[in-house]
Design a protein that fits this description.
about 290 residues; 9 helices; globular
C-alpha cells in the first residue's frame, strides 16, 4: 500500500507557491504522492468567488520543490482538453519531475458546469468517445514518434511531439469511474490503474472492503493477459489519527486489493480547500499498516 495527499486546485490551493509548500511537506513527511484536482469551475454555485489554479502549473511548482514523490491530477477530463496540448503538458511535467508523473483520466464533471458552461458537448456518450480516442492519441504522442490519425472526434496529420515522455513507454495511466458501472472499469483494465468512486462513499469517505474486492475481481477478469502486470487500485478518505484505528480502516481495503490510500478531505467540509488542516494532516505522516 502506498499513500498520497489529495488537494483541489481551487481556494487556497490555487496558488502555485502554496502547492509547492504542500508537496515539499508531503515528501519530507514520507508520503508517496501528491494529487491535484483538474477543474475549471467545478460546481459554479458552490465555488462562486473562489480562485482556481491551472493544475499543470501547480504540479510544475510541486515538481521543482521535490525530488521523490509522484505527482499527477486526480483526475483530468480528457474530453475537455485538446489531446495535443495535454500530451505536451504531461510530457513537460514528466521531464521537469524526472519521470514522476502519474496521469489519471476520467469523464469529468459536473458536466453541466464544466462542459455546458463553455458550449462543449454534454452528452456522456460523446464525452466517453472523446475520452477513449483522446487516450489513444496521448499514448501515441508520448512516444515521440510521428502520428497520423483520422478519428470520429480528432484528426492529426503528420505530427511529432517532442520531447517524448521521460517514462517509457509512457507515464502510468489510471482511469476513474463509478462502481458498479462496468464500462469505465473495463476501460481502466486496458490501462495501468483504476480510481473508483462509490455512490455510498462520497469524496472523503472510505468505501466498503467488499465493494473494493468485487471491483478488483472484475477488473482482473478484463486485463486480457496482463493480470500479472502492476495495476494501481486507488481508494481514499479521511484516515484516523490513531495508528491502530487507521490500520483497522485501511488494512481490509489493502486485503481486498487496494494498492493506494489517497488522503482526502470531505468534499462537503469546510477544510477542503484550506492549507492549514491539510498541512497538519501531512505532518502527522502517512498511516502505517
Amino acid at each position: 500500500m502506498r499513500f498520497s495527499i489529495n488537494i483541489p486546485n481551487f481556494g487556497e490551493f490555487a496558488d502555485a507557491r502554496t502547492v509547492a509548500a504542500v508537496a515539499a511537506a508531503a515528501e519530507q513527511a514520507g508520503w508517496d504522492a501528491l494529487f491535484v484536482w483538474d477543474h475549471v469551475v467545478h460546481d459554479k454555485r458552490e465555488r462562486q468567488g473562489q480562485p482556481f489554479g491551472d493544475p499543470w502549473m501547480l504540479l510544475t511548482a510541486a515538481a521543482l520543490a521535490t525530488s521523490r514523490i509522484k505527482l499527477g491530477t486526480l483526475v483530468t477530463p480528457v474530453a475537455r482538453r485538446r489531446p495535443e496540448q495535454l500530451a505536451r503538458q504531461v510530457a513537460t511535467l514528466d521531464s521537469a519531475s524526472g519521470g514522476r508523473v502519474i496521469f489519471s483520466a476520467g469523464l469529468g464533471g459536473p458536466i453541466a458546469d464544466e462542459f455546458g458552461s463553455f458550449g462543449e458537448p454534454t452528452d456522456p456518450v460523446v464525452l466517453a468517445e472523446r475520452l477513449d480516442e483522446g487516450l489513444g492519441l496521448l499514448e501515441r504522442y508520448w512516444t515521440g514518434e510521428p502520428v497520423d490519425h483520422q478519428g470520429r472526434h480528432y484528426q492529426v496529420h503528420d505530427v511529432t511531439l517532442l520531447p517524448a515522455s521521460v517514462q517509457r513507454p509512457r507515464p502510468p495511466v489510471w482511469i476513474a469511474g463509478y462502481w458498479p458501472h462496468r464500462r469505465p472499469m473495463r476501460r481502466a483494465a486496458r490501462w495501468d490503474g483504476v480510481v473508483p468512486m462509490f455512490a455510498d462513499a462520497g469524496h472523503g469517505r472510505a468505501p466498503q472492503a467488499g465493494q473494493v474486492r468485487e471491483l478488483v475481481s472484475y477488473v482482473r477478469q478484463h486485463r486480457d493477459g496482463r493480470e500479472n502486470e502492476p495495476f494501481g487500485v486507488v481508494v481514499g478518505g479521511i484516515s484516523p489519527g490513531d495508528r491502530a484505528q487507521a490500520r483497522d480502516l485501511i488494512g481490509p481495503l489493502a486485503d481486498a486489493g487496494a494498492t493506494w490510500w489517497d488522503e482526502r478531505q470531505l468534499q462537503t467540509g469546510e477544510d477542503l480547500s484550506r492549507l492549514e488542516p491539510t498541512l497538519r494532516r501531512i505532518e502527522q505522516g502517512p498511516p502505517v499498516l
